[in-house]
Amino acid sequence: MSEPVRIEPREGFWRIVLDRPERLNAFDRATHAALRAALDRAASDKACRALVLAGSGRAFCAGQDLAAVEGEADLGRLLAETWNPLVARLRELPLPTVAAVNGIAAGAGLSLALACDIVLAAKSARFFAAFSKLALVPDSGASWLLPRLLGPVRARALALLGDPLSAEEAERLGLVWRAVPDEELLREAEAIAGRLAEGPTAALVATRRLLDAAWWRDLRAQLEEEARMQAELGRMPDYAEGVRAFLEKRAPRFGERP
Q1: Which residues pair with 54 in a beta bridge?
Q2: Cα-to-chain-centroid distance, residue 81
Q3: Which residue, 26, 45, 49, 152, is most buried by CB atoms nearer than 10 A?
Q4: Strands 14-18 and 51-55, bridge-based pairing
Q5: Which strands, in side-by-side order, build the sheet including 5-9?
Q6: Do 109 and 61 contact (CB within 8 A), yes or no?
Q7: Is residue 41 a contact partner of residue 35, using CB atoms and an 8 Å limit?
């Protein structure tokens, strides 16, 4: 039996590929364990400075493999043991992430894509907040991510109706960064990951944390957090290198990932 997740190292970053194409890359517990292990390996490898998360075959991820949980008595426990720690781990990685969405991103698979820092979509991609079709609520972070990305009105309609969004509509609404021709998806995603890998990793990760927290802090608290983070980053070698590069009119050469 093949592994459900592949790791494909590149120069400065990794491509992690969900590899259950016969199930549209839907997750069973083995897939959860394999992806968590891959993320942990990436986090511990200082040579890996960014990630591309992709799906093999006709889909990015169809969410939970329902056949694998048929008869599951407690869906809340299932989330607590699998999807919740996975999405939290992805969102808290000490390196930036790019989702390359081909085909379907549905249910928790949609949550998985949106938990990445930058989402690219092939023009053939489709996004489904399909939870209501199963008489369930949005989970795996979808209820947190969708209102922040779309606003409450669009998020509510998408979640209640469960209608699909095309890649181009998702781009127009701000759900994804860009919709690109199918044949350019991985090339574009890897180009972005390469740029991120050359960047100041600590500052990029701090930017993610700062933007996420802005939703529940008031302005004064956010100003204080900006100042605290700026003081911390200003003591790091990457800041000194960025200033030197600016003054010398050259591209910066940032140091090892923290």
Answers
A1: 17, 100
A2: 19
A3: 49
A4: parallel
A5: 5-9, 14-18, 51-55, 97-101, 118-122, 178-180
A6: yes
A7: no
Query: What is the pLDDT tens value at each position of the chain, 258 positions in all?
Result: 589 999 999 999 999 999 999 999 999 999 999 999 999 999 999 999 999 999 999 999 999 999 998 777 799 999 999 999 999 999 999 999 999 999 999 999 999 999 999 999 999 999 999 999 999 999 999 999 999 999 999 999 999 999 999 999 999 999 999 999 999 999 999 999 999 999 999 999 999 999 999 999 999 999 999 999 999 999 999 999 999 999 999 999 999 888
Question: Tokens 């669009």 correspond to what residue?
Answer: 154
Residues in the chain, total: 258
Instruction: Give me the domains of the chain, ranges plus CATH numbers.
Output: 5-197 (3.90.226.10), 201-247 (1.10.12)
